[in-house]
Amino acid sequence: MNGSILIIDDEPTIRKAFTILLRGEGLTAGEASGGREALALLGREYFDVALLDFAMPDMDGLAVLREIRRLYPELVVIMITGHADVVLVVEAIKLGAYDYLLKPPNPDHLLMTIDRALEKKTLHQEITKLDRSLASSLESQLGRGPVIRQVIEDIRRVAASDFSLIIEGETGTGKTLIASLIHGLSRRADGPFIAIDMGAIPESLLESELFGHEKGAFTGADRKKKGYFELARGGTLLLDELQNLTPHAQGKILQVVEEKSFYPVGGSKPVSADPRIIGATNADLKEAVASGSFRQDLYYRLNEYRISLPPLRQRPDDIPLLAARLLTEAAVELNRNFTGLDEAALELLAGHPWPGNIRELRNVLRRAALLCEGGQLPGKMISQVLDGENKGAMPAAMALPGPTAPISLEEAEKTTIAQALAHTDSNRTHAAAILGITHKTLLAKIKKYGLE
Ligand SMILES: Nc1ncnc2c1ncn2[C@@H]1O[C@H](COP(=O)(O)OP(=O)(O)OP(=O)(O)O)[C@@H](O)[C@H]1O
Ligand SMILES: [Mg+2]
How confident is the model at residue 130 (pLDDT cuts 50, 70, 90)? Predict the structure, then answer.
């Protein structure tokens, strides 16, 4: 066993016997002959568990317990009682004692109780750590610089409401991530969070994708199907890449937002539209409204609140924290151990303009991590990856053969994936890291192109 135990008892023979027993188990033992001495000792030394005698001349056990709970709430207290006084025991448990034992305790029983107490303590510490990290998780995830702090304030404020909102920001600034954080902090957190890429739905399928359809609504509709607005009931619907909405789609969405209901394709009964709507865009929607490509009425409907995410180059203070987080993520993914980034690495990161924002930072760190065995990530690796980026190419060994004739994007993708697999001896995790895509996406593409 591993831990430190404080024995509080006025009888020296008992203290001696306990100390020998505990040390025999590898535990550290400290002794105090009474309540005051114990409290003084606790002020100087750390203990995990206290064995506390009920009846002591200088201060009774319950009074000591009360003081301990007040001053050292993390200390786990096991009461040792000379006689089975139920009232005292109940009182002690109420005050927060962990357990009690009759005097003289059976050694095995005593050790078992201590073992359990230590276990509970570890668990408790982990939960407290978790609690703390949840409380500060927005700051630790997003950053602590002044610009992002304003955004965090906005997130907290708007999460508590059911307002629809627009999140604006350059590509890769974390719009999708922040929409999901807002959902997670809202009263809809237990409901679904669904993100739809508005540019990815063909116009002809838009209505049935958004609103669902009845069986037989059109050729091929052989079953009733729920749309995103129905699937996101009780939750949040993210309309991502809002700038890609066609005028027709804008009209349809405006209608739902205004009427708070919609008709599935082929349906005759309106269905109430429940989800909270968040729109995300990397374009300047105000400008789009001015130029007539985005409907003003829809813009105002969605814009009950607006969050503007700053580009990474405007918040250099946050780069070290984000880099450390992203490196840890990459380390877990690649199963390596990194202790952080060296000075040179941080300097290089601070000086880069990051047109692709956090997504680019993430990809750079994943690639650099791949080139490094572990330990402290050196600036050398970062510059190697950034140089490769500047040339708009992968590391030399990975470059595509100069195409003599233009090939299709699909062909290029297939070739690139095949090369990444060859380069990594078919290690898919490494290949995905080089390609800057998720493991899952890589698997899907391997299947699509028959590269197994
Ligand atoms: N604060 C952050 N900490 C860690 N990773 C982040 C953070 N913000 C964004 N990312 C990561 O960066 C990538 C891009 O983020 P996200 O998809 O949210 O950006 P976006 O603004 O929605 O981009 P796009 O305009 O291309 O849709 C994702 O892989 C995301 O996990
Ligand atoms: Mg996005």
Answer: low
CATH number of the domain located at residue range(s) 401-452 in this protein: 1.10.10.60
pTM: 0.62
Q: Categorize the per-residue pLDDT at 140 as very low, low, confident or very high, splitting at 50, 70 and 90.
A: confident
What is 4-133's CATH superfamily? Response regulator (3.40.50.2300)
Amino acid at 305: Y
Contact status, residue 428 vs residue 442, Cβ threshold 8 Å? yes
The average pLDDT across 388-392 equals 65
Ligand 1 pocket by C-beta < 6 Å: which residues? 141-142, 169, 171-177, 280, 282, 322, 325-326, 358-359, 362
- SS3 at position 329: helix
The atom number, within ligand 1, closest to the CA of 171 reads: 25
Ligand nearest to the CA of 311: 1
Q: Are 114 and 49 in contact (CB under 8 A)?
A: yes
Q: pLDDT tens across 17-29, in order?
A: 999 999 999 999 9
Residue nearest to atom 24 of ligand 1 (CA): 171
Backbone φ and ψ for 137, nearest 5 degrees, come out as -65, -30
Query: Is 152 or 423 the better-scoring residue by pLDDT?
Result: 152
Domains 141-310 and 314-392 in one fold = no
Q: How far apart are the CA of 152 and the centre of ligand 1, in A? A: 15
Q: Which CATH number fits domain 314-392: 1.10.357.10, 3.30.930.10, 1.10.8.60, 1.25.40.10?
A: 1.10.8.60
Structure-model confidence comparison of residues 193 and 91, the more confident one: 193
278: nearest Cα among 255, 259, 296, 253: 253
- How far away, in angstroms, is 299 Cα from ligand 2 center? 19
> Could you state, in order of their start, the residue ranges of all structural domains in the chain?
4-133, 141-310, 314-392, 401-452
Pick the CATH number of 141-310 from 3.30.1540.20, 3.40.50.300, 3.40.50.1110, 3.20.20.70: 3.40.50.300
